[in-house]
Q: What sequence folds into this?
């Protein structure tokens, strides 16, 4: 289904009508969430967003060559020029510029685990995710000091995180 959608909107069968029907509305820039639309992968959007960032950086709209890049650039430009119905588009440039900085400077740690959930993940992930969300939120909001992070790690490991880490490491060894 994804291949069909991609082909219709930006692939070999792409037409402006298909693009605007299934991807972005050409009049208001809204994203079209049709039953056909999957979540985009980075592979499908990287070129368009890189071109859009380059077009903004160089102030040269011709750098936005891909159909996606042109639409994003045009909608973001209109939003930045005050078209309120397109406000969300004005956030694309700074967000993707930051994403490329993080990516290019390797300021992230990629999760290399792509296997099925481990037994402990199935049992404990909801609890561990809740603990993580609550702890991070408290630290970010100033309701807890950064020292709480060390306690979080200790509790996370005790509540199943250490076992999950062991299971994931065993999985990694099994595929090498």
A:
């Amino acid at each position: 289904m994804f291949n069909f959608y991609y082909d219709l909107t930006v692939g070999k069968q792409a037409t402006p009508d298909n693009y605007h029907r299934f991807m972005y509305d050409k009049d208001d820039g809204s994203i079209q969430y049709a039953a056909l639309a999957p979540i985009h992968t980075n592979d499908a959007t990287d070129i368009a967003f890189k071109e859009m960032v380059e077009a903004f950086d160089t102030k040269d709209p011709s750098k936005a060559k891909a159909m996606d890049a042109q639409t994003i650039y045009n909608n973001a430009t209109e939003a930045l020029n005050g078209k309120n119905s397109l406000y969300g588009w004005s956030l694309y440039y700074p967000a993707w510029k930051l994403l490329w900085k993080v990516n290019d400077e390797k300021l992230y740690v990629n999760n290399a685990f792509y296997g099925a959930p481990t037994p402990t993940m199935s049992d404990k992930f909801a609890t561990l995710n809740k603990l993580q969300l609550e702890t991070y939120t408290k630290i970010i909001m100033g309701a807890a000091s950064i020292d709480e992070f060390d306690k979080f790690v200790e509790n996370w490991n005790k509540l199943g995180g250490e076992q999950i880490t062991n299971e994931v490491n065993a999985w990694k060894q099994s595929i090498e």
